[in-house]
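Summarise this fold before class:
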Amino acid sequence: MKALVYTGPGTVEVLERPKPRIQDPTDAVIRVLHASICGTDLHILKGDVPSAKPGLVLGHEGVGIVEDLGSAVHSLEIGDRVLISCMTSCGACRYCQKGIPSHCQTGGWVLGNHADGTQAEYVRVPHATLSLHLLPTSIPSRAAVAVSDAFPTGLECGVLSADVQPGGSVVIIGAGPVGMATLLTARLYTPSLIVMVDIDDARLATARDLGAHATVNSSSPDARQQLMTLSGGLGFDSVIEVVGISATFALCQELVAIGGRIANVGVHGTKVDLHLERLWDRNISIHMSLVNATTTPRLLRLVESGVLDIGSLVTHHFSCNEASKAYETFQAASQHQALKVAIDF
């Protein structure tokens, strides 16, 4: 089969790899229809994820058709169209039982990290019963890849962790695909103010189209003053970081209101400062997590019912043979006005 392989720092190549087979009774083999590139894949290329070694098939997001099933998988049938969750979970270990399957002792973030991932013509998915979701016929396959990771990450690590409330104020720093998913899921909780922050005016325009009440370009000299003015000088109840660099987390600490919450979604590869000397008496909470993807069934129901529109997130798609171009487009997303980049197989 053809697969997109991480061959070294900054390099992805399309290579021939053996088609995966069932290894455990709980496995499924999926014929991939569409995969997508995540910001985390770029962090792998940068060397920020030491567990991902050269030779790895990248990707943890995708939609496909069930090709083969292990003997213990009874909830699916060969030929089913399924969403591949970014997290695999056994459902039985201590972490799954505690409700944090992202740290499953035999699963978690396996695909495209510890084992070959979804950016290939076929992928073996462990713990298939809890790690695959039947796709309703009304949801387009390519658009659905955004529900593999971006939407559950935005909802769980962003909106729920930041305790977005009806009538509250929200600022989201980072208007990439996960930031946009955070915006769309935050709207479900009817805050009175959602402000999106980014350095890309095109993405900020898209954020306004998707329902942001206001946007601020953080490269503006008076960006902080604009943000504080929008919050009435009080700061924001919910501050969500969706970039993963020191400067954006520092901005979060400046913007959080007394009694507010900071939710870190971004992947940080370098040291970040925490200014306790300014924050210790403000009664705030800071939450950081890896997505558990336990909200995926809920999100699919919202999409199926028309309450949540996922159609705007996948903006570009390429064939498997155009993998280098796909990665180049995602790496220069602002130049191409790209959000989610899909790869078709």
Q: What stands out?
A: The first strand starts at residue 2 and ends at 8. The chain has a mean pLDDT of 96. The first helix runs from residue 39 to 46. The chain has two domains: 2-149+292-344, 152-288.
